[in-house]
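Pilot study result, target chain (134 residues):
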Amino acid sequence: GSSWNNCDFETNLCKVFPKLDLQPGWIRRNGQSGMGPPYSDPNGNESAYFLSLSSEIQPSSAALRTNVFLPTDEEHLCQIRFHYWVSQMSGMFMVGLQKHSEDTVTNIWQVSGELWNQWNVHTITINSTEKYEV
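Predicted structure:
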């Protein structure tokens, strides 16, 4: 069966990102924070929280790493659906996959430039015969 793990950042303890407090550059904020757009979450809620890359470290990059996911098979595919906002200043947003037998992160999806300054949604499907992180 399918099991969804919803991560909305309303609490600091989002299970998908176990080391969130240790990720430099990322802050948890909402549209009322006075830090510029976006001024609401994808549902138009001004008080709902999302993750944002701190403007103080641009134009450098910052990564978010998930916890470890178990291998997929025909019964258990992994689908990750996420909302994202890219401003013209921040450039590119990439999703990478790291299998536990590999040292490198493989880029599996990226977006830049054409969908600026609006909330977009994307779903990626992951197949891996071993444990992995995204």
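One observation from the pilot: The chain has a mean pLDDT of 85. A full batch analysis is planned for the follow-on phase.
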